[in-house]
Automatic annotation (TrEMBL):
Binding annotation for phosphate: 86, 124-126
Protein keywords: Nucleotidyltransferase, RNA-binding, rRNA processing, Transferase, tRNA processing, tRNA-binding
Residue intervals of the Exoribonuclease phosphorolytic domain: 10-140, 158-224
High-level lineage: Bacteria, Pseudomonadati, Pseudomonadota, Alphaproteobacteria, Rhodobacterales
Matches recorded under HAMAP family: RNase_PH
InterPro entries: ExoRNase_PH_dom1, ExoRNase_PH_dom2, ExoRNase_PH_dom2_sf, PNPase/RNase_PH_dom_sf, Ribosomal_Su5_D2-typ_SF, RNase_PH, RNase_PH_bac-type, RNase_PH_CS
The organism's place on the tree of life at top rank: Bacteria
Protein name listed in UniProt: Ribonuclease PH
PANTHER family membership: EXOSOME COMPLEX COMPONENT, EXOSOME COMPLEX COMPONENT RRP41
The reaction(s) this protein catalyses: tRNA(n+1) + phosphate = tRNA(n) + a ribonucleoside 5'-diphosphate
Function: Phosphorolytic 3'-5' exoribonuclease that plays an important role in tRNA 3'-end maturation. Removes nucleotide residues following the 3'-CCA terminus of tRNAs; can also add nucleotides to the ends of RNA molecules by using nucleoside diphosphates as substrates, but this may not be physiologically important. Probably plays a role in initiation of 16S rRNA degradation (leading to ribosome degradation) during starvation.
GO molecular function: 3'-5'-RNA exonuclease activity; tRNA binding; tRNA nucleotidyltransferase activity
């Protein structure tokens, strides 16, 4: 039995509320169970120096956790004076995941920055950030298309992410914190809407795993991504 009482292949409740901030070109608040992330997308008429003059667009991301997004207060990274290694790793993951679903030629020479701020954490914050980040990105791109700045949709596919793992010896979908902290195997699966894989992060936290078990986790991840993509498309409709 899972601590939440969910079935092995059951996602936490997912909701995506759009237009939650006034100034950002695209924004949403994604809730995956008790993990809540505010995602905003900002369009800028510039690109990093390494692609300037190439005609290619760029999508990047920043990620952070508010001090009381967890059970005890965390110090703001700004107060420490630098980002932690986990933060840097996650925001790079978000950026390259979102870029996998973008036609950068169609986007044109501009940059969209997706900011993901964790309001409340209960496991799977990077997956929620990627999933909600795509919604914010899509809303921003829709504005570019409405104004005629972009002719064809540069977003070739939705991008969504979900965690899966081995908990109490069984493959489970969408780990919350009690499961994540006790899981023998923990994985994050990032996919396009057609289930083409972008990235898989798998690690043995307390036990090794077999090829059959990994296949079970991939099957669960595909089911989860299907549900997340449906929620994304409903949010941007």
């Amino acid at each position: 039995m899972r601590p939440s009482g969910r079935q092995l292949n059951e996602m936490r409740p997912v909701s995506i509320e759009t237009g939650v901030t006034k100034h950002a070109e695209g924004s949403c608040l994604i809730r995956m169970g008790d993990t809540h992330v505010l995602c905003t997308a900002t369009i800028e008429d510039r690109v990093p120096p390494f692609i300037k003059g190439s005609g290619l667009g760029w999508v990047t991301a920043e990620y952070g956790m508010l001090p009381r997004s967890t059970t005890s207060r965390m110090r703001r990274e700004a107060a420490v004076g630098k980002q932690g290694g986990r933060t840097v790793e996650i925001q790079r993951l978000i950026g390259r995941s979102l870029r996998a679903g973008v036609d950068r030629v169609a986007l044109g020479e501009r940059q969209i920055t997706v900011d993901c701020d964790v309001i409340q954490a209960d496991g799977g914050t990077r997956c929620a950030s990627i999933t909600g980040g795509w919604v914010a990105l899509k809303l921003a791109v829709n504005k570019l298309m409405k104004t005629g700045d972009v002719i064809s949709d540069p977003l070739v596919s939705p991008v969504a992410a979900v965690s899966c793992g081995i908990y109490a010896g069984q493959a489970v979908l969408d780990l919350d914190y009690p499961e994540d902290s006790e899981a023998g195997v923990d994985g994050n699966f990032i996919m396009l809407g057609n289930k083409q894989m972008i990235e898989v992060q798998m690690s043995a936290e307390g036990s090794t795993y077999s090829r059959d078990q990994m296949n079970q986790l991939i099957d669960l991840a595909e089911k989860g991504v299907d549900e997340l993509v449906a929620a994304q498309m409903a949010a941007v409709a």
